[in-house]
Amino acid sequence: MNTVTLGVWRLPAHDVPAAVVAGRVTARRLRRSDTVTFAKVLGTASDAFVPTAATPRRWVTLASWRDTPTPGLTRWWARHAEESATLTLRPLWSRGRWDGAAPFPVEPQRWDGPVVALTRSTVRVRKAATFYRAVPGIASELRRANGCRAAFGIGEAPVLRQGTISIWDSAAAMQAFAYATPAHVAAVEATPTIGWYAEELFTRFALLDAEGTIDGASVR
After folding, report:
1. Are 18 and 119 in contact (CB under 8 A)?
2. Are 5 and 86 in contact (CB under 8 A)?
3. Residue 70's pLDDT band (boundaries 50, 70, 90)?
4. By the 8 A CB rule, do 26 and 73 touch?
5. Among residues 57, 63, 194, 214, which is most buried (max CB within 10 A)?
6. Nearest to residue 7, comparing CAs of 70, 50, 94, 68?
7. What DSSP state is assigned to residue 125?
8. What CATH number has the domain bearing residue 192?
9. Cross-strand pairs, 42
10. pLDDT tens digit string along 76-126?
11. β-strand 197-214 against 148-157: which pairing, if any?
């Protein structure tokens, strides 16, 4: 059964230029490992989820493993981070593609504990303005959502290749936000008609273990 690790790293400002290079090196090193089936190093944004909310000092490493994760492959980030969090995840449900592949194989299982939701998409150029006009209302709803421990944006490239990560006390809390908040429901219902995305992925993970903090808040 695949295990997924999510590392969240906040760096000193003077290390940000080096992080750009370290991100490429780390991603290459992870992908060359025989035990890694998928790996990304991503920039982040605040819970406003728009390009102007980019947080250059915070980065994410995301990897899916066949076997036991190897922490040493992200050692540069652990050595330089002022703040860090490490989450161990297991895919519970997934729909869509990332770079043309389904990166998180799911094996059905019961889970009553905390969950992590990941969304990512490639936004069509002609739909970007419409897409980002819908974001502030959803972000406002998420900040008020009960049971959301943390949330922030992720991105592979400015504006068009973006997503979100959110940590929830339970699947029920996450679903209450997803299916009962007006702005989010309206955006979901509009997606097939508007055609915002050239590619999209939605994945829910069981949060098996967590240590550290994100923006000063414990992820446990």
Report:
1. no
2. yes
3. confident
4. yes
5. 63
6. 70
7. G
8. 3.30.70.100
9. 60
10. 999 999 999 999 999 999 999 999 999 999 988 899 999 999 999 999 999
11. unpaired
Structure tokens at 79: 């050595």
Unique residue bearing structure tokens 């981070």: 81
Contact between 96 and 200 under an 8 Å Cβ cutoff? The reply is yes
How far apart CA 39 and CA 108 sit, in angstroms, is 23
For the stretch 50-63, pLDDT in tens is 989 999 999 999 99
Q: Is the pLDDT of residue 167 over 90?
A: yes
CB 201 within 8 A of CB 94: yes
Give the amino acid at 142: L
pTM: 0.94
Q: How many domains does the chain contain in total?
A: 1
d(CA 127, CA 180): 25
Please report which confidence band the pLDDT of residue 157 belongs to, taking 50, 70 and 90 as the band edges: confident
Confirm if 163 and 154 have CB atoms less than 8 A apart. yes
129: left (phi over 0), alpha (psi -120 to 50) or beta: alpha
Q: Which two tokens stand for residue 26?
A: 């780390």
Q: How far is residue 61's CA from residue 10's CA, in Å, rounded to a whole number?
A: 12
Domain that includes residue 197, residue range: 3-218
Coil/strand/helix, residue 143: helix
Residue entry with tokens 């290390």? 15
Provide the token pair at 92. 């519970």
